[in-house]
Task: inverse folding
């Protein structure tokens, strides 16, 4: 394989890496306590929160997986990104203020901490920690796969394994040293670069295909793709399209990498404009999904570009052949940003689950959480690398599974339980367990060709539906009307202390 | 009242999602209604915990109408008009409605802390 991009691209990418390390080094010096490591000292503002949340949420999934999925299934892939129009507002309405209120009073560093406050007892916290750990490993595996693919194409390496290990090494060292302060401040620089890169790529996509009309005409006229590629559902059925819409539109309420940022905001009043900042930056980033996702089929249809060997290669192939060298470097740096910002969030969240939440759920405490948190980063990285190596599908499929794990396990207990007094610890335990088991079992059965679901059904959507159903049913069955199992202070901060 | 309506909607929608995933075929379209209903119901449930939940009703109704209207729009419009609508309209419109709706009805939750 020959390397992609020219020498200018390499200089830009190198400058980016140096910038990230400089920010990481600067912020590492400010990391002194577990509060600094896990929630950035709870001192960040509106734009830092918005950009950091966006860059933690958007990863190799959006920048590489999205265009790849669009290349495979057509416009129907946009059902994954359509919820971005309302999810930022929904997150703020349903959870942001409540999580910030809890973090302002209690020692809340992680999502399982929140679960433990709302649902007393060890089981909900322990299961939530397992969910966070499993989802983090899967999501981190996605980032490692994406980084491996990118580095492999950039360096012209024949071995995906060496490219993956190189990226993993940089990422792990950086995250272990800096923790979440490094994560948050580099997230901002990375988020800014992601937005700029996505907008530039979209403009290049329009220019290289002759504009929106020419692009869609070329796709519709081709034998390979045809008009059905542009149909609202693309090449998938309604069950799959709306399954994606449901998983990404509701499952977002269980994503710890995003919810975690709400603990860190310095002043709750800053939340007022967060949906517009977060949603606006997400909308701009998604231009890369749409731009490359449609430009590559159009260019392949018109014979201007050879078809990618694998759908996931659509984005690197487009950049290395259609963009000027400097822009290629900038956008490669933006993609690496997207991958690293998400990955270091998951390393941090996963390490907290391993050294803080699981031991506490078992009635133990780790003596030096900061030290063990940094060491846990290496364990989680190794698990994620193994997971990435053995998972064989598209990046977007792995992303849907990881997103689904968090959504099915945590969204009902967090979103419904923070706005309704009745749910009990039993309901939370049953729902989290159902979500975890159903997501993993349905995914495995689907991969083995033995899915009990209808054709096209998204396993994560069915798992989230099961988890929500179980949560509601057990809440009505075990809960007492108007009585909240949480401590009175917690119920008041959540706004569920008044049964009327 | 708002809480009961929201919980009722969730109670109907969530098993329907599971059933639709299991049956498939033409009943796949059963999945559409609850997948649009659940986000609105979750926001309504959260709004029921606010001191003045009525303020959220207007943006909530606007979001519900947007989701239903845009869902119908993309399925009714022919490509590439529907492609354009999906790529640009359906992300930005709800973003503005929900973002501005949240800003206008924002409650800093001063009494929570």
Result:
């Amino acid at each position: 394989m020959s390397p992609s991009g020219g020498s200018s691209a390499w200089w830009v990418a190198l400058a980016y890496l140096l910038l990230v390390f400089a920010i990481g080094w600067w912020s590492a010096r400010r990391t002194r306590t577990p509060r600094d490591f896990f929630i950035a000292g709870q001192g960040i503002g509106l734009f830092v929160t918005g950009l950091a949340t966006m860059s933690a949420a958007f990863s190799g999934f959006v920048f590489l997986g999205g265009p790849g999925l669009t290349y495979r299934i057509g416009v129907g892939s946009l059902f994954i990104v359509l919820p971005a129009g309302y999810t930022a507002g929904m997150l703020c309405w349903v959870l942001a203020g409540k999580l910030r209120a809890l973090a302002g009073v209690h020692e809340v560093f992680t999502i399982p901490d929140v679960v433990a406050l709302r649902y007393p007892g060890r089981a909900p916290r322990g299961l939530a920690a397992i969910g966070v750990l499993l989802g983090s490993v899967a999501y981190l595996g996605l980032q490692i796969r994406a980084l491996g693919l990118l580095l492999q194409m950039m360096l012209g390496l024949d071995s995906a394994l060496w490219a993956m290990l190189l990226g993993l090494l940089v990422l792990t060292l950086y995250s272990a040293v800096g923790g979440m302060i490094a994560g948050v401040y580099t997230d901002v620089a990375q988020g800014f670069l992601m937005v700029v890169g996505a907008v530039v790529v979209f403009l290049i996509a329009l220019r290289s295909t002759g504009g929106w009309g020419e692009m869609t005409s070329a796709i519709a006229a081709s034998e390979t793709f045809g008009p059905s590629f542009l149909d609202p559902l693309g090449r998938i059925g309604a069950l799959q399209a709306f399954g994606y819409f449901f998983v990404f539109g509701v499952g977002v309420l269980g994503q710890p990498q995003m919810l975690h940022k709400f603990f860190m905001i310095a002043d709750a009043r800053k939340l007022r404009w967060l949906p517009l900042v977060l949603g606006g930056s997400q909308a701009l980033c998604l231009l890369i999904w749409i731009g490359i996702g449609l430009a590559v089929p159009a260019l392949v249809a018109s014979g201007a570009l050879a078809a990618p060997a694998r759908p996931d290669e659509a984005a690197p192939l487009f950049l290395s052949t259609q963009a000027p060298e400097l822009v290629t470097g900038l956008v490669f740096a933006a993609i690496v940003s997207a991958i690293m910002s998400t990955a270091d969030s998951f390393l941090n969240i996963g390490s907290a689950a391993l050294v803080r939440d699981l031991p506490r759920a078992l009635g133990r405490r780790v003596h030096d959480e900061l030290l063990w948190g940094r060491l846990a980063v290496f364990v989680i990285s190794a698990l994620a690398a193994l997971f990435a190596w053995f998972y064989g599908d598209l990046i977007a499929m792995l992303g849907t599974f990881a997103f689904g794990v968090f959504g099915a396990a945590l969204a009902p207990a967090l979103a419904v339980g923070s706005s309704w007094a009745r749910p009990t610890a039993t309901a939370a335990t049953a729902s989290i367990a159902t979500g975890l088991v159903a997501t993993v079992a349905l995914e495995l059965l689907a991969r083995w060709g033995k899915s009990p679901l209808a054709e096209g059904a998204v396993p994560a959507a069915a798992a989230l539906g099961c988890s929500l159903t179980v949560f509601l049913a057990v809440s009505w069955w075990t809960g007492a009307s108007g009585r909240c199992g949480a401590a009175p202070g917690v119920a008041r901060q959540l706004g569920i202390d008044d049964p009327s | 009242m708002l809480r009961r309506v929201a919980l009722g909607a969730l109670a109907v929608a969530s098993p329907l999602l599971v059933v639709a995933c299991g049956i498939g075929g033409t009943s796949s379209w059963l999945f559409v209604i609850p997948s649009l209903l659940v986000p609105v119901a979750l926001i309504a449930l959260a709004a029921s915990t606010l001191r003045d939940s009525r303020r959220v009703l207007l943006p909530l109704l606007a979001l519900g109408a947007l989701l239903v209207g845009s869902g119908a729009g993309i399925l009714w419009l022919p490509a590439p008009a529907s492609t354009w609508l999906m790529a640009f309209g359906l992300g930005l419109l709800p973003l503005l409605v929900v973002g501005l709706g949240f800003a206008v009805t924002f409650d800093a939750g001063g009494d929570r802390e």
User: Anything to note?
Assistant: The helical segments of chain B are 2-23, 32-47, 57-76, 81-104. Chain B is about 75% helix and 0% strand. Chain B has a mean pLDDT of 83. Chain B touches chain A through 62 residues (CB under 8 Å).
